[in-house]
Amino acid sequence: MLLIALLLAAGQFAALKLFDYFESEPRAMAAALQAITVVNYTRASLLAAHENRRLALLSELSGREGVRIYAADMLEEIEPLPNDHLIRMIAEKIRERLGKDTLVVLNHFGIPGLWVSFSLGQDDYWVVIPRIQVDRPFPWQWLGWGALVIMLSLLGAYLIASNIHHPLRLLVKAAGRLSSGEYPLPLPEEGAHELREVSRTFNEMTEALVRLDNERTLLLAGISHDLRTPLARLRLSVEMLPDEYCASLKVGMIQDIGDMDSIIHQFLDFVRGIEGEPTQMMDLNSLLTSIADRHIRAGRKLTVSLAPTHLIPLRPLAMQRLLTNLIDNAFAYGGGDVTVMTRITAGNIILSVLDNGPGIPASQMERLLRPFERLDTARGNKSGSGLGLAISDRIAKLHKGQLTLLNRPQGGLEARLTLPIQPQVTAQTKQAFRVNAQPRRQ
C-alpha cells in the first residue's frame, strides 16, 4: 500500500508539473500582451500630447489601474531577471513585440512590479505594471483535489489488494500444511477469476494427492499384511524343526525372518501415517524416560541427560516412534554406547542422540533422510529398509521441527532434533511448563 501511495503521489506531482509547463506559455502570452498594451497606449498618449502637457499627462497616467510611469536614465544600473521560467518567457515575448532594445526588469529600485522601458524621441521612460497582474496565486485547490484523488485511489487499491491478499494467504497456509505432510481443507473458490482458477486447481491437486496416498497406503498395507501371514507360518515351521538337523542354520533363518518382519513393520509405519493423531501439551522428558527404561532393562548401555521439564505440543505416538527410531538406529550402527541429551534455547528444545559409530559422509546426510535410501559402506552395511530416518524426518516436520545428522568431532554421529517451543498463553499452562527445575540424569 505504501508503494501504491508513493506512485500515486508521484503521478499527481508529475501531472501538476506537466499542466503548469504547458499552461505557462498561454499565461505568459496574456501577461506580455497586457504589458505591451499598457506600454503602447502610454506611448501613444504621450506622442499625441503637446510637449508642455506631457508632465501633467504623466502625472495623470500614473496611478490609474495601478500603473505608474517614471522617467528613465539609461545609465542607471539594471538588475538581471530572476531565474524564473515564467518571468523570462514574459520578457522574451515583450521584446518580440516592442523591440530587442526594450528593457524588462522586475522590482527595480525596490518598487515591486514589472518594469518595461520605452523611448519617446530623446526621452526614455519606465512603465511599471504591478506584479499582482503577473504572478499567479498558488493553486491550493489543486492540492485538495489531488489529495482527494489519492485517497480515493488508495481506498480502491486497498479493496483490490484485500480481495487478492486473502485468497493468497489461505493458499500459502494450505501449501505450508501440504508441505509438512498434512492435507488442508478445500480452499474457498472466491476472488478474481485467476485466483478462483488457482484455488480450484489447488483443490483438485490436493484431492488427487489424497487419492494417490490412500491408494498407495492400501496397496502397501495389503502387500505387507499378505507377507506377514506366510512369514509367521514360516517362522513357526522353522522353530519346530529339530535342532539336530542344523542348529546354526535354524538360528540364521529365524533371524532373517525377524529382519523381514521388521522391514514389513517399517513399511506399515511409513504408509500408515501419523497426521490424524491429535496434539497434546506433553513433557518430552517423560517419553525419553520411558524409552530409556526399556533399553536399560534390555541390558543396553544408554546414558540420558535431560534439561528441565518443559511442556510442548506433541503427538505422543508419533514422537515415541521418532525417538525409538533414532535410538534404535544409534544402537544398530553406533558401537554399543548411546547418549541422549536435551537442552533448551530461547525458542527451541534440542534433543541429541549421540553414538560412537563410524559416522556418515557429509555428502550423504540429506540423502539418508529420504525414503528407501541406504549407504553401501560404513553405517549402511546393516539390514533394513531405509525408512527409519525418513519416518523420523516426516514426524519432525509434522511438529514444525527439524531433524539433522551431524558427524561428531570426536567420532560418531549426532542425530539432532530441534522442536519449537509453543507455550500457551494461560497462567495455568505457564505454571505447568516448569514442573521440575532441576535436570535429571540416568
Explain this structure:
Its EC number is 2.7.13.3. Residues 222-423 form the Histidine kinase domain. Its main location: membrane. Keywords: ATP-binding, Cell inner membrane, Cell membrane, Kinase, Membrane, Nucleotide-binding, Phosphoprotein, Transferase, Transmembrane, Transmembrane helix, Two-component regulatory system. The protein has 442 residues and is an alpha+beta fold. It is built from 10 helices and 12 strands. A 6-stranded mixed beta sheet has the order 10-11-9-8-6-12. The radius of gyration is 46 Å and the shape is rod-shaped. The two termini are 58 Å apart. The relative contact order is 0.07. The model is unreliable at 376-381 and 423-442 (pLDDT under 50).
What's the short story on this structure?
It comes from Methylobacillus methanolivorans. Residues 222-423 form the Histidine kinase domain. With 442 residues, this protein is α+β, with helices and mostly antiparallel strands.
